[in-house]
Amino acid sequence: MQTGPGDNEIIHKVLQGEQAQYALLVNRYQNFVFTIALRYTPNREDAEEIAQDVFVKAYRSLADFRGESKFSTWLYTIVTTTCITFLRKKKIPIHSLDNEQVFEIADNQNSAFRANQVEQKSKVQVLNDALRLLSVDDARIITLFYQAEQSLEEIGRIIGVDPNTAKVKLHRARQRLKEKMEKHFSEEVKDMVG
Amino acid sequence: MSNQQNMEERLWSYLDGVCSGEERLFIDQLIATNLEWKTKYQELLELQDLLSHRLELDEPSMRFTQNIMEAISKHQIAPAAKSYFNKRIIWGIAGFFICTIIGFLIAGLAQINWSAASADSSTGINLNKIDFSKFYNSTYTTVFMMVNVILGLVLLDMFLRRPKTEVRGKK
C-alpha cells in the first residue's frame, strides 16, 4: 500500500525544482524496477545498472509525464525499453515468447540446479525458482500483473499490445509457470498440497 | 486438451475478475456442481494466491537511492517534448508538401491533351504508353516549380525562425 504524498504531487514538486523529492519516488519504486530488470538479466549488477539508468532517464524526462497514465505504468515502459537497449548493447540475446530454446536452456539449468538441491523448498522458493525458469516475456508479464499490480490495459501499454493480447499472454505465462512447477518441483508441490 | 485449456482460460478470467456477470454466475454454478471444475478451480486459486501474496520483490543495494540522487544532481530535467515540437512548424511542413504535390499535379494535368485522350477512349488507358516526361519538360513548368519550391522554403524558414526570435525578444 502506498503511503505519503501521491506520485503526481511529488512529480509536481520535483518539476518545481525540489530535486530531493525524487528520492521518495525512487524509494517507492526501486524494488519493482529492480525486480523487472532481474527478469531480463540474472546478473544483479546488470539489473542494478539498468534500474539506475531507468530512474535517471525518468528524471530527465519527467516533464514529459503528462499524468494520463499512472506514474508506475510510465516508469515500467521506460524499464522495458531500457532493458532491451541494455541487452542489445551487451549482445545478450532477448528470447521471444515462443522460442523453444529458452525452455531447453531453462531445463538444462534446472537439471544442474536439482543435482545440488538438498534442502526442502518452501512454497515461495518453488514459485521463485519456477519463475526464473520462464522466458523473459512470461516472467515479465507475471511480475507486472502480480507484483507491480498493473492492470491488463496498463500492461498492454507497457509492452505495446492491446489489453486482450496482454490477457492471452498472461494466461499462457501462468500456464507455463504451472507446468514448470509441476515438471521440476513436483515433489515439493505434492508436499505443499498434502 | 482444448476443453481443458478452455476451462483454465475461463477460470483465470473468473479469478482475475475480468469476465462478465453472466459468465461469473455460470462459472459459480459449474464450480458448485462439477467436480472437475471444482478441482481445477482450487488448483488455480492456490496458484493465484501464491502469485498475489507470496511473490517477493528483489531489493537493490543499500546505496541505490543515494547513487541515483548523486547521478541526477549532474542532470537537468529536459523540457517537455511538446514545448519543442511546435505544431505550427509541423503544419507548415505538411502544408508545403501538400501544395507542392498539388502544384505538380495541376501542372501535369494542365498539359494533357484531353480531347485526344477521349477520342481514343475505346482502347482504354494504358499507363505504360503515357510519356510523363512530356508533362514536365517545358521551361515554364520548370520555372514555376522552382519558384514554388523557393517560396515554400522561405515560408518554412520563417516558421522555423519565429519561436527563436520570440524567445530572444522575451529575454
Description:
By secondary structure, chain A is mainly α. Chain A has two domains: 7-89, Rna Polymerase Sigma Factor, Chain: A (Orthogonal Bundle), CATH 1.10.1740.10; 100-193, Arc Repressor Mutant, subunit A (Orthogonal Bundle). Chain A is 72% helix and 0% strand. Chain A is built from ten helices and no strands. Chain A has helices at 7-15, 22-40, 44-60, 71-89, 100-115, 123-132, 136-147, 152-159, 163-184, 186-193. In chain A, helix 2 (22-40) packs across helix 4 and helix 3 (44-60) packs across helix 4 (71-89). The longest helix of chain A has 22 residues, at 163-184. The longest helix of chain B is centred in the C-terminal third of the chain and has 32 residues, at 139-170. Chain B folds into two domains: 2-53, no CATH class; 82-170, no CATH class. Chain B has eight helices and no strands. In chain B, helix 6 (87-110) runs antiparallel to helix 8. Chain B is elongated and about 85 Å long. Chain B has 171 residues and is mainly alpha-helical. The interface between A and B is large, with 46 and 36 residues.
Characteristics of this structure?
heterodimer; A: 194 residues; Rna Polymerase Sigma Factor, Chain: A; Arc Repressor Mutant, subunit A; 2 domains; 0% strand; B: 171 residues; mainly alpha; elongated; disordered C terminus
Main β sheet profile of chain B: none
The general outline of chain B is elongated
Percentage of residues in helical conformation of chain A: over 70%
Number of helical segments of chain B? 8
Estimated structural class of chain A: mainly alpha
Order of helices and strands of chain B: HHHHHHHH
Give the CATH superfamily of the largest domain in chain A: Winged helix-like DNA-binding domain superfamily/Winged helix DNA-binding domain
Oligomer: heterodimer
Q: Hey, which two chains have the biggest interface?
A: A-B, 46 and 36 residues
CATH class of the largest domain in chain A: Mainly Alpha
Task: Look at the structure and give the mean pLDDT of chain A.
Answer: 83
Residue stretches of chain B low in confidence (pLDDT < 50, at least 5 long) are: 167-171
Quote the beta fraction of chain B: under 5%
CATH topology assignment of the largest domain in chain A: Arc Repressor Mutant, subunit A
Amino- and carboxy-terminal Cα gap of chain B:
72 Å
GO molecular function, one term (chain A): sigma factor activity
Keywords (chain A): DNA-binding, Sigma factor, Transcription, Transcription regulation
Family (chain A): Belongs to the sigma-70 factor family. ECF subfamily.
Organism (chain A): Niastella vici
